[in-house]
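so my prof wants the structure for this chain in the tokens format not the other one, which i didnt know existed until like an hour ago. anyway here's the sequence
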Amino acid sequence: EKLTKMANERYDGMLLGLAQSLEGGIDELLEVFFDFLGRKTDFYTGAMDGAAEKLVLKKFREHQGRARKKKEGAEKQRDAEEKKRAKPEPPKEEPKIVEIDEADEMETDVPPAAAAAAAAATPDDAAIATGAEPGGAISQLCEADEEDKEAETKLQPNKGNGANLATYSWTQTLEDVELRIPLPGAPPARFKGKDCVVEIGITKLKVGLKGQPLIIDGLMPKKCLPEDGTWLLSDGKEIVIQLEKVNKMEWWNHVVTSDPEINTKKVQPENSKLGDLDGETRGMVEKMMYDQRQKQAGLPTSDEQGKHAMLEKFKSAHPEMDFSNAKIS
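here's what i got, hopefully its the right format
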């Protein structure tokens, strides 16, 4: 059954293109198909009476059974997730930042993950014994500052959390990536599926027109599921590709490594879809959203709060150290 499904999926692009070109929906699609069988084959007359009808009903019942089984499985999974989310959780306090003196030392209420990281931190006692600058906390803060400067050179994501490039545009959710590639040529030009080159690999992607230089040809930064990838030719002028991510807990910074990167810290997940995510993924997305609001307000992110808390703990444990000249961003 799995091999049959994979073989059938080869025709998804062609059938989607046909369905989009018919205004009558499923009725017209079936009309075209059965009319084709009558005009071009002996399907209705080549076998014993009733054989064609029995075959159609047999296939209908097979696919109806699969569809119902798939629907029931999805409903059971959704019910289980709703029960899991319905369990009461202890209220979480919103992180707060309070200025306590003119020395710009800050005491913060940090998210649980940041607090746990701070509690588990161990000072570099060897460096302190030799009189060296305490490396752990300060070096981490400096690295964070360098990462922020590097992020400023990256592209601002478009409304779909992707990018609008010179030859194509792309958008993404945590689950998938969609590309739209306009085909070169004069406006009246209309291409057909056989004119297109689309090769989707686990980490490779090739897109273009036969006999012409490829529009996209490169390695993808993350893995996708080739068997779940689909493409279609829209209006004969644009290739639309859907890629299914392997890791559904991360944002892509570009589609192929030769293209400019977007700043994934600026990605804005849709609030309306948070309820569809599992607990771990939802926590990660909520942290992203919180950090984004903090940055827009000019306040520290949850990671930065954790580093400040770690440094405060370090200072409390070593009051003999002088931090008055330390430059910490």
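also thought this was worth mentioning. The first helix runs from residue 2 to 8.
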